């Protein structure tokens, strides 16, 4: 027997033993791959987030489930880097999609539960049975202690940053820019926040980017004035240049979608009723454009001229398995959208992927890299044309 024969034989044994893992379910409707471009929705990765997972990534950054807390004031050595994994952390799994206000309440419940168990675990060890029980329960107690310390530290740092950067007020205006169409009110609120010394240059530039994307072709567009306000605030040249770069990346000329105007009578009615009733949470009004795209796809209303279909036949049946891949990177807000659609749409399973998972910082790096690539390409084309004329 050759080594390759032995290897194949071993693999076949594994496949036979774990046949359930390799028994792919056959469906009447084949799986559908939906490929999207990040430039079709440059709004979503620019917004502050208020659900636990998305907020942690936005304000602290998640890299392979790890969060760097080394810059947190007074942080202990064992908490300088922590792991947030839904597979190994029950509290995180149960709370990753909840709003920040709910997280605070659940953290309090977690601590109270820990305090109740703590005295019990520290009882006197007077017999062999006591010692045995302690040894058996100690790993669980130690794990719970680590979970409490980790989440209290993370939530505490998020709270500190929200207060320090005035993010409640900033986020409210971001949501207005993303979800409403009142130019006068939006402009007034952006200008007011640009005068606030607590608003960082990063958040100030982000507000102007959102304004530039939304009111790019508005008859009363005041972007030059806002750019002057950024300069007067002392915002660096790097961030000021990114305003035009974001419009170049995801502006009206580039994107195939209309992010801001309702497209049919039903959408207009919904927006009108929403305006009358208000919203439960002004910080989470926004829904990514992905929600509308998937909703139309599931209902068979996705326009083929905007989303060309490649397959053996036309797309007639409602898809059951949808794989979404975002070129240019997805976001955790979009992951939440997919999670909610999976919960509320029986018979449909959606998986989200992308070239990366963005927060605002990484998205702006992507925009910058995209702009440099485009300029480099244009420059090489000009050079080659000049050479050909010679």
Automatic annotation (TrEMBL):
Belongs to the STXBP/unc-18/SEC1 family. InterPro entries: Sec-1-like_dom3a (IPR043127), Sec1-like (IPR001619), Sec1-like_dom2 (IPR027482), Sec1-like_sf (IPR036045). The keyword ATP-binding does not apply. It is found in: Endomembrane system. Gene3D superfamilies: 1.25.40.60, 3.40.50.1910, Syntaxin Binding Protein 1, Chain A, domain 2 (3.90.830.10). One of its GO terms (cellular component) is cytoplasmic vesicle. GO terms for biological process: protein transport; vesicle-mediated transport. Its main location: membrane. Keywords: Membrane, Protein transport, Transport. The gene is VPS45. This is Vacuolar protein sorting-associated protein 45. Transmembrane segments: none annotated. It is a peripheral membrane protein. It holds the Pfam family Sec1.
